[in-house]
Amino acid sequence: MVKPVFQRYWNPYIVLVAAGLLSALYFGLTGTVWAVTGEFTRLGGEVLQVLGVDVSGWQYYQMIKLEGSTWSRPDGWIVWGMFIGALMMVLLSNSFKIRLPQHKRRYVQGFVGGIIAGFGARLALGCNLAAFFTGVPQFSFHSWIFIVATGVGTFFGAKLTRMPWWKGKPTLVRGAVRGSDVKVRVIQPYLGAVIALVYLGFVGYLFSTGQGLLGLGALFGLAFGILIERGQVCFTSAFRDLFLVGRSLMAKAIVIGMAASSVITFVVISVYGLPPITQVAALSTLVGGGLFGLGIVMASGCETGMMYRLMEGQVLFLPVFVGNVIGATVLAYGWDNLGIYDALVKSGEKINLIDTVGPLGAILGTLAMLGILYALTVYREKNYHRNFGLKGGIA
Amino acid sequence: MESVREADFTLDLRGESCPYPVIYTLEALDGMKPGELLQVITDCPGSFRNVPEEAVAHGYTLARSPVKNGQEYLFYILA
After folding, report:
1. pLDDT value at position A202?
2. In this predicted complex, what is the ipTM?
3. DSSP secondary structure string for all residues of A320-364
4. What's the distance, Cα to Cα, between the start and end of chain A in Å?
5. Rounded to an integer, what distance in angstroms lies between the CA atom of residue B60 and that of residue A230?
6. Whole-model pTM?
7. Tell me, what's the pLDDT at A179?
8. CA angle A253, B17, A83 (to 5 degrees)
9. What is the pLDDT of residues B66-75, one digit of tens each?
10. Which residues from chain A sit within 8 angstroms of residue B77, using beta carbons?
11. How far is A42 from chain B (nearest CA, A)?
12. Which of B9, B12, B16 is best to mutate for the A interface (most A CBs within 10 A)?
């Protein structure tokens, strides 16, 4: 029992359906969604405040409510819970290792890509979570625009990835090379178990002291972290690998997960009468989604994927994380100070499908859209392999 | 268990993150003569799945089962 759970990665379909159901449940319990980049923006604001910059007048921070500290916000605990859940599973499976890219250019690519992705995500008001994986099930039309824009952005990102000066040359040597020496003493799983116990104790403390919302954030964050690490859930690869090598697994799993989440969220909204979370659909969604798609491919990971990769010891994702926070903070600054809101957002409006086409139309339309996405994914995969077979080389 | 044959080429990708292990592996295989054996050493967890799966999807065959070596994997692919 222990071996399959900790030694093998889990089936992405099961993981993404579970994540979709949990995010619908989290919405039902708290009225908020699973999201991370809003908190990254607040983190940037907190850092600026520590440095003595007064950000209280910035409109963006008023909109996303920069109050208290990251430790006193449920959204904050979603983020830290995800980091801890991922780290826990990495250690329990004995897979932590400091991994340094052979090509130093990756750090620059990661940092620049991270900034672009952070900026784009917040311009569009959500990354692949709030404007995608948890946005579609809220029937917020901005996520439909975001998906298309992200697809276009990743397409160009994938083109860039193929450039010789970008990807660099690998070290291909003649003959065999021995693998690294393996340490006989295994201590990582014990560390993982200790972290799990301490963290669960802490969550229990939050609940027992009446801080239920923080506790829920901490608990669901943990679950999401466990899921994305064990499922190796990578939104970046979903689009990118379709373009690059005709790989469809992650894209299909994400679509199925969103479909499951949409149905459950629909039930939650109808039964409990909770208002769905709707974001502005505007030119900013289109531009932000495009930048986000380009940035995540440049950085090799989005704001969600970089979290568990950093915990695995992939050092590349340290500059990506820093870049994400910087990009999000720059956007927060530019929102009113550089006129971004007036230019790209003001003309838009919040469109929720439930209001515009009715509840039945919203769920059926969403499922139909996901069905088309699924069909396009399968088509692209087949088309890629047909071309590959004809040309006898990488497309 | 198949008889263990020495690899003709080795692609040491330790430290590289996705998607580069897949791209490098496919390009290396593309440049090799049919029947030559490529050994791939990688430690990016995403590549543990996408490298062997994409090699097979692109018409190459795994010469032997992957070897898990601590936090890295060794793959043996016939061009």
Report:
1. 97
2. 0.91
3. HHHHHHHHHHHHHHHHHHTSHIIIIITT-EE-BHHHHHHHHHHHH
4. 42
5. 27
6. 0.93
7. 87
8. 65
9. 999 989 999 9
10. none
11. 28
12. B16
